Amino acid sequence: MLEKKENQRLSLNCEGILRCARYAFMPNKLSFCGPDKNRDLLYYCQTGKIDGGLNLILEKFQTLYPYLELIARANQIRDPFDERVIEAYWIGNQLLENIGKSALYHHLIDEQQLKKKLNPKLFKQTVSKIPLGAKPHHSFHVFNVWKRTGNLDVAHTLSTMDLCRISWGKIRKIKKPYLEVEYQPLILEKDELKLGNLIPQKILFEMNQDGFIKEPRIGQWVSFHWEFACEFLNKKQINYLKKYTQESIDLANNLVRP
Prior knowledge:
Elements: H1 2-29, H2 38-47, H3 52-59, H4 64-74, H5 83-90, H6 101-111, H7 114-117, H8 120-127, H9 138-144, H10 158-164, E1 167-175, E2 178-183, E3 186-189, E4 192-195, E5 199-204, E6 221-225, E7 228-232, H11 235-252
Helix pairs in contact: 1-2, 1-3, 1-5, 4-5, 4-6, 9-11
């Protein structure tokens, strides 16, 4: 009976946890985040077969998992790997609007331990964004926490911020194992971050002759993380991703006023 309940729980989590793994895969491969389990992550993502081991791997991502717990808790969702929670963090959705300012503040101090990881000036700058509408979206952490808080204690650059954010692009060419997509790069203009004009960008979509997206077609939209395609996007998802990315950029530029 216990085994049956565990299998039911895993099947309910299946799509959510797999989507999370697809986004977590590349920074893990680059040794930026999470435990040294990249081959396992690749296996789960490519086969779609999951067991309790995938939960254990993703729970050890010290920046990612506490954010998922925060979003789930604020929305009375028991499972941090619920697909709605995963989409809220990586892409964005209405769940982010239910996060209280106090909850986010205590999350950044207690769970992310930013007070210990950042110098006082950077910490003050980061938490000052909360009353201005900061949301626990992946892009908020990328653009507004100026040091990586995963396995590497180093500052972000413009290039690494662009690679680390979740980007969206329209497929223009397909030449395995690469796609050429059209996307807006992150640029610096007059000392402010912004999304630039559309340019072509080559990204991987296969590794060992298999990928996370199957049978891509020209004209489809994809998300990508560290230049690796994660999943296809629909119009609603693109709009959410654009919205929360732009909000995070505006906060980084101090363009939002109380």
